């Protein structure tokens, strides 16, 4: 497989899909990354863990509908051009 722009885009899409399917109660809470672990005090700087949890929640919220369209386009392109 050659290192092309399409392969790089497909890698980004697969990585975003992996983040989007992480379930908070089933997976993240078992490793200590549930919803209650990311809460900090008022005025405290959020740590790396809280920022990553916020990123995961944001990707799951914002990218759900666009990922369906992007995945559909990728599937059609793979079917047409191999």
Q: What does it look like?
A:
The chain is an all-alpha fold and 82 residues long. The chain has helices at residues 5-20, 24-28, 48-62, 64-81. Helix 1 runs antiparallel to helix 4 (64-81). The radius of gyration is 16 Å and the shape is elongated. The model has no long low-confidence stretch (mean pLDDT 81). One of its GO terms (cellular component) is COPII-coated ER to Golgi transport vesicle. It comes from Onychostoma macrolepis. It is found in: Membrane.
Fold blueprint:
Layout: H1 5-20, H2 24-28, H3 48-62, H4 64-81
Radius of gyration: 16 Å
Tell me the fraction of residues in β-strands, as a range.
Answer: under 5%
* Overall average pLDDT: 81
- Report how far the terminal alpha carbons are from each other: 12 Å
Q: Give the assembly state of these chains.
A: single chain
What characteristics describe this protein?
single chain, 82 residues, mainly alpha
Short description:
The chain is mainly alpha-helical and 82 residues long. It has 4 helices and no strands. Pfam families: Yos1.
